[in-house]
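Illustration 12: Protein TonB.
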Amino acid sequence: MEFKKNPKLELKKNSALYFLIGLTAILLFAYVALEWKTFYKTPELVQNLETPDGIDEILPPVLINLPPPPPPKIIAPPVIEIIADDDETKVETFIDSDDSNQDTEIMDVEDVVFVAPPIEDEVIFIKVEDPPVFPGCENENTKEGKRACFQEMMQKHIRKNFRYPEMAQEMRLQGRVSIMFTIQKDGSIDEVRMRGPHETLEKEAARIISKLPKMTPGKQRGNAVKVPFSIPIVFKLQ
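Figure caption equivalent — predicted structure in token form:
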């Protein structure tokens, strides 16, 4: 025996209609809730303009008379006293003039001693008159040529003596070491200072600088001076 559904008892028959009715009811409820306004009764403010009990009239304001301002002080002009030329009791005051006296003799230029400014004990590399000469750059005649040759010979010296420390290779250390040293008045290298990422790299850079040859010192107005110089050495693993 086969069972069949009664079409009158089908629940999904009017589901779309019920859905629309419910949606309309929700929208209407939301609209009413948003547009609903409530008014509260507030007591009226009453301003009592009548005269308070026990006071028949309003008292007039109290006026305080301030004292008059003092009269302005009148400063009398100075009295100019005329003194007779033959009056010996009065002493005349003389005012010195700041103007130059034409009777004063002018010093000769030959008598003036010119003092030269003192020579600095240390002059930086780019400002020294005669830069230090690296061995092998003696044939350069110009200052610019000597400076360029100095830079080139420094690079050659670093490449020739460069040696990557084994410990730095094992630790994978690399970076830039900034070195500053001073070329003394006798051409020797001294006052070596350095800064780098690791002490191992700094020691290798110091070793390279320690092998620099003795140079011709720099000169300022013909006198030997100290010349500081700085150069970076880059350690980079391949």
